[in-house]
Amino acid sequence: MDVAAAPGRVAEAFAARQQAWEDEHLSPLGARSYPGRRPVFETDCGLRTPLQRDRDRIVHSKAFRRLKHKTQVFVSPEGDHFRTRLTHTLEVTQVARTVARALALNEDLTEAIGLGHDLGHSPFGHLGEAVLDACMRDRFAGRFRHYEHSLRVVDVLEKDGRGLNLSDDVRDGILGHSGRADPPRTLEGGIVRIVDRIAYINHDIDDAIRAGVLREADLPRDAIAVLGDTGSHRIDALVHDLVEHSAAAGAIVQGAEAGAAMDELRDFMFANVYLGERQNTEQRKIERLLRTLFAYYAEDPARLPDDGGAPGADLGQRVVDYLAGMTDRYAVRIFEELTVPESFAL
Questions:
Q1: What CATH number did the domain enclosing 54 receive?
Q2: Distance from C-alpha of 326 to C-alpha of 124, rounded to nearest angstrom
Q3: For the chain, what is the domain count?
Q4: What residue ranges of the chain have pLDDT lower than 50?
Q5: Beta-carbon neighbour count of residue 189 at 10 Å?
Q6: How far apart are CA 129 and CA 145, in angstroms?
């Protein structure tokens, strides 16, 4: 059955119907699904927009599947209800789509960026990212930033080096989702950039309280008075604030009061959770583990499976490509194989 030669009546009319719908229903400021500009030209699918196709490619990628075994905040948490990098990704995407729909922007673009934004995150969350960045600076005068690596995953590392050939707006949104990166060019990318922060701050508070690291009473009173006393109340307040101020401004912006309250919560979390005493203890363990693995592969490139996954890259890049792709538990397993005598393994 050759769908390209004989696409059928629905497929023949799909693109025109979708474009007409977007012209009628989307904001003039919203990104359009067509044309699907990609690094390598492809004929469009007959039953999906280019952005829906990107979403499907991300969801079916190996990097997306690995997110379920990558830490969000707590390393190897004891319990089934703590966030992982995958649940964080789904939560960001769900909230971002809500904002996009309320503003009459392109939900498919927002969804694809949300699902792909953390594909390049290292094992062990932000602690792991910091260690890999330090290893690259110390040994190769390079850097590791997860948002840049997420783009590298979709452009280079997936599909045995062929990449996913995603649309340019999706790639731009993935690269620009972090506050440390240049802002994305689309409003849809701007939504994910802010919602990523809204989601992780409030969900990390929830996990920290569940883990006994924080108590509700520890949270800064002024920020709680502005945003609410539960995670769902705070997210709801921040989303409503984002939608109303963005609609008025014609850009993706927060109100001054809500933005300041969120920044206060973020600063509190960095001081008391992300860089707190408990995490500092884990930081030392993670640093030892990742530095051991980094040195092991950097000292003998032949040890890298498949030459690191990108044979044309320099050695530092190949090492960090391999290590950043590891799940937490796989990194622990390889470290144990290298450092624990076999006779001690039970």
A1: 1.10.3210.10
A2: 10
A3: 1
A4: 79, 81
A5: 27
A6: 7
* Within a domain: 8: no
Q: Which residue has the tokens 């921040």?
A: 238
By residue range, what is the domain housing residue 242?
50-344
List the one residue out of 28, 52, 11 whose CA is nearest residue 104.
Answer: 28
Here the tokens at position 312 are 């044309």
CA within 13 Å, CB half, 64: 19
What six digits make up the tokens of 193?
Answer: 């950039």
| pLDDT tens-digit readout, 31-45 | 999 999 999 999 999
CA dist 198 → 49, 150, 203 (Å): 29, 20, 9
Q: 207: how many CB neighbours lie within 10 A of its CB?
A: 21
Residue 3 belongs to a domain: no
| pLDDT given at position 306 | 82
